[in-house]
Amino acid sequence: MITDRAVSVVLADGEVVRIRTLRPADADDVVALHRGLDDHDRYLRFFGAAPSGLEGLARKMAAETGVRHAAVGAFRRDRLIGVAHYEATTDPTEAEVALAVDSSAQAHGVGTLMLEYLVSVARSYGIRRLTGQVLAENTRMFGVFTDLGLPFRATPGGPEREFVLSLEPGEPYWDALNEREREADIASLRAVLRPASVAVIGASRRPGAVGHAVLKNVLDGGYSGDLFAVNPAATEILGVPCAPSVAELPSCPELVVVCVPAAAVPDAIIHSGECGVRAAVVISAGLTGTDAGERVIEAARKYGMRLVGPNCVGVANTDGATRLNATFVPGVVPAGAVGVVSQSGGFGIALLESLRQLGVGVSSMVSTGDKYDVSGNDLLMWWQRDPGTEIAVLYLESFGNPRKFGRLARALAATKPVLAIRTGSTEVARRAAASHTAAAATPAVTRDALYEQAGVIAVDTVTELVDAIAALSWQPLPGGNRVAVVSNAGGAGVLAADACARSGLALPELGADTTARLRALLSGQASVSNPVDTTAAVSAEVFGACLDVLLADDAVDAVIAAAVPTALGDPVDAVRELPAGTKPVLAVRFGQLAHVEPLMSPAGRPATAAYADPAGAAAVLGHLASYAEWRRHRGPVVAPDLPGIDPQRAIALLRERPAGWLDPLTVTELLDCFGIPSVPTRFAADEDAAAKAFAELGGPVAVKATVEGMVHKSAHGGVALGVSDENAVRDVVRRWRNRFGAAWKGAVVQPMSPPGRELLAGIAGDEVFGPLVVFGLGGVDTDLVADRAARLAPLTERDAELLVHGLRSSPGLFGDDAGSGRLDTAAIGDVLLRVSRLAELLPEVAELDLNPLVAWSDGCVALDARIRVEPRTPNDPFLRRLRT
């Protein structure tokens, strides 16, 4: 939710404005805004002349935000250029809305932007409808409301139209919001990646200086725009005109590249902003955590500048119309179709060198460094509209807004492969937690869930990354995970088959027609089953014919051709001759020095990628098959409609609850609000209450101790099963009270359930990533086996299905291997969807454990549940805002 702290947001034309809620001190600015409206705008706003009590109205509009009132202002530098506000009606879920925009700022999206923020504020206070009146002739305002993406209706006919705006955002609203942000972001990034003019501040004559290297790279790259240098001690450097300051240049540059000492950076940004510079790339390091760094951020906010860095190696765009290399990387940035964004300058340099050796180039590269503003999210939006980018590569050490990242990456991955290097995967990052679910939710698990759901191909090393880029550059995606292996050496085929199995690929049985055709081509010593062993005495022509046969088999989605050269020739040469097809073919050339290199066609173009080891080829095909599967089954991120959910009762249950673990009865009631099946539960503080619970439930019962700090009840002797009479119940509770002393909270009494498979379902809340839904084996197997899967909420039906079938043990529990003992996947999936909805609607739920969730062939039920809540500040991760 927006507060009174201003955030920077990009408008449709790329201009950056600041948005915040108004406060009483803004009343005079509100008056000035309305008095500055021209006669026509004033008429449309007030249905006539401005009211005589404008000052009083302004004070009311600028009042502090609360349950019944809120106002959002848009500021260009320090000047208020727009206001949107609402006042609640007698119905606490409804409010009247109005807005005004300065004529100089109209048609740039200011009104829509303010409404997006006002809607977020209103929803956080429980308002679900905004109402008001608009003159029929005010077509621009009607356009603002209808284009917002929320359900909107207006009364027909008459000069004045009453309208209702429903504040129930769905996919149309999020899609419209994302599209507005994408268009605005791309417009602002043009000054970074396609600037009409560039100035290097801190350019130097000294060859060893960064300012010299950057200026030389811009020159050597053949930059197409106007280039200037800024240095008070020179009039020209490398033949480039030089001035003492940005203000003294012949014209104001669109982009400045700052290469001065850290202490001088704030003044460089301020002077650039005063001159109207649109963007800055700050190469300089040593700013973060200092007063100078804070001044740079404030200056960028004030002047509406986009900012790359600081502490970065720069930006590059190899498009022929720009040819910008504003970096200090060695050598020429090779032109190509791979977009790169890297938080690590060293990684960016290493990747460029690897791609250069491979013969693959980049479309654009941005080194984000300390990431004050421009981040991976910005580049995901840029690449979606950039026809020159076909593959996106990310190196991210942190996520500023991971939930927005997931949405943007998903949109890009729908049409272009997105690859990322995993970072921070070690168990050193494991956080302390008091439930099995939260203990399972390490940062690496959460990050991997984010990547998987967004369709991102995640790898662990630069070598794996380059391997995948090579295949994606020269081969199509496979139609499935079924791979045929053909080799002229039996051992090579076995190695490739083993590598395929490790990478989640299947080696299908070849069709009868395929094996017959192979048998006709090969000698009697050859093996025509998969993997195919042609034997060493085979020519390249025959090897190529075998490839044609395998590719024609409908049971084959991809082929790995692994071979060693013999005196008869190199069979892999046959792969060079293959025409482009719809199925990928990867080569393995034992003995080649490079881990991966292009296998060139007779025409001198890469025919495919050749790998030195079958493990590399198989791993790549595994990634490509998973990505292709994601693309085939991806759908809108829409949570299904679930009956039997009462969110209002659930919210009331948690209202003003202190942080900590909820009592068992509240947990049971909360689960009931979401239709999550659980056994009847009674809570007993002492022996008498336990005996009464036994009488109500009937025997036999399960009795479970509730003890402060105890997670594993059974491991600490806190569970008694099959207790069949009242005296036994009393004895169990009495014994526990004496044993646990001051830590004793009470006992849960439940009827015994029939035995079944014990599972785990739960939530691990994260204020940055959002809630993570965890599913796995439960009961005593929870920690012993540690077989779990995780996905970020909200879950779709497809997500729930992937969770259920994402365990190592899933084939034995839910697949054909289970036979008559197969568990009810529909019931388990329904529980996971309901747990996800609980997490989505109740952000204060920090941890939830359903363990065990007992499943049978005809249903499932939670036998034990724990929920911990903690205060959470409402946050809308999808609102448009810059990091600065």
From TrEMBL:
Coiled coil: none annotated. InterPro entries: Acyl_CoA_acyltransferase, ATP_grasp_subdomain_1, CoA-bd, GNAT_dom, Ligase_CoA_dom, NAD(P)-bd_dom_sf, Succ_CoA_lig_flav_dom, Succinyl-CoA_synth-like. It is an enzyme of class 2 (transferase). Keywords: Acyltransferase, Transferase. Its EC number is 2.3.1.-. GO terms for molecular function: acyltransferase activity. Pfam families: Acetyltransf_3, ATP-grasp_5, CoA_binding_2, Ligase_CoA_2, Succ_CoA_lig. Residues 17-168 form the N-acetyltransferase domain. This is GNAT family N-acetyltransferase. It comes from Amycolatopsis pigmentata.
